[in-house]
């Protein structure tokens, strides 16, 4: 019964999150630039309407089927990843013993979805954006592997629900602040934002989106927002205790924490500049990956010594 409830809640949670993320996308940039805050539901609706009614462009000899399937795959991966997040005690759509593994599979397949989107256009700029993302996205997924294993060690389980329950005494953000930051970086990579937006950057005229317009651009935009919501909920669950909290119902705590992570990710996407691809590769391989491995070792040693 609780699983059925979770399956019913999941699309509503994702839809509400997409709306909130779209509003934040319109509100945060002016705030970062020092202008007045304009948080409104009208702006995202206007953008969505104009894209839905716009003319859909095409290139010469595109892979049309893959072009259509790419945003569908991207959106589906966001929904599947969200399915392992418990909304309340016992309320989870996919209560798997290896929920972290399913999330990791969704992360990896995101690279496939983004590459497919750029490759299908049969055009230079989208293809360059796709290859850039593969080069940056794959090592970024390794960060997630070390970070999530470190988060799972205190629970001695790969089940997301067990990871939440293991945080009743102390949240993982306190145990592993570096892991929290690294996972936020992964979130920027998965949702194609800010310093990790190598797939759809302005210097490539939009990269994988350079040749799309109308409804095709709308569906890709919605898929990106869906992934942003999914990774925000996962961050709140793994590092901020998920549904744990005093007084308020667990679902409310999850919504509040997910909203806070959403704000942080949208803000980080506006504040931090994107490095050239070669410098980003050096940063990931020479600094971030060793840091994530050392953090994993440190967590393991701590548990061995103090339990």
From TrEMBL:
Keywords: Membrane, NAD, Oxidoreductase, Transmembrane, Transmembrane helix. Pfam families: NADHdh (PF00146). One of its GO terms (molecular function) is NADH dehydrogenase (quinone) (non-electrogenic) activity. It comes from Jiella pelagia. The keyword Oxidoreductase applies. InterPro entries: NADH_UbQ_OxRdtase_su1/FPO (IPR001694). It is a multi-pass membrane protein. This is NADH-quinone oxidoreductase subunit H. Belongs to the complex I subunit 1 family. It is found in: Cell membrane; Membrane. Its EC number is 1.6.5.9.
